[in-house]
Amino acid sequence: MTEVRVYSTKQKIPKDIFKVDLNKEFPELNPINIGPCMLYKGRQAKNLHNAWEYTKVYKEHTENGQITTKYWDWATKGWDKDKPAKSTKKKYLYHFWDGARYGVIEARRRIFVSKYIRLISNMDSYRELKNIASNHEIVAMISKHGFDHKQMSLTEVLFNPAKEFDYSFVLAMLISKDQSLTDIP
Question: 134 pLDDT band (50/70/90 cuts)?
Answer without folding.
Answer: very high
